[in-house]
């Protein structure tokens, strides 16, 4: 099943990296630094049934300390139930630390794929809803930092030609302290929001958050027989550290990044194509 993923490469590697309320302020007392990234997505009420389905989950964590305490946690879940015309997944990454020198990193990825929806001349449609929640908190901006990134992406691909027909992307990032925080979304035609996308942010302190929720419908009419593949994937990444990591911590940090990239590269460079 998972060998059918090569055409998703550009989607899985886009980031450098239903709404649950998240209060960083109340959680900040638990640790000197905190980072949180969660995303959820559901697709349902498909007008057609895929000929095949697949799910993918992957997690990576790193927690090291030379003087202090640090924890990192990642979780990912995914399911596709063709008989119920429903697919959903969840991805969560958290890290928190306290002390003089430590590093905590967590990354989670979840994906669902529906292969070869056979659409005779007529309409193909489904409903969707999702949420992305990010939060960071630090106590000392001179010696601590916390980062959180996340995205939700789906695309419709012509199974025969590999052409991307339509897409939706929701993405955000927090860098505390520092600039470059963001929360935004993009989409192609044939997507209608049944509720105005809700984006709420606070980028102006040592406690920051970005919360987004979306709900809508995809609908497109095809003039001839078309086979469609649907991919929905999410990625959540967090890191906390104090202070700037030593040579040892930096080496281990880049080691986990290499492991994470290798896992993605292995998935997206399969020799079997979607067709």
From TrEMBL:
Organism: Floridaenema fluviatile BLCC-F154
Protein name: PEP-CTERM sorting domain-containing protein
Entry keywords, A to Z: Signal
Signal peptide positions (record): 1-31
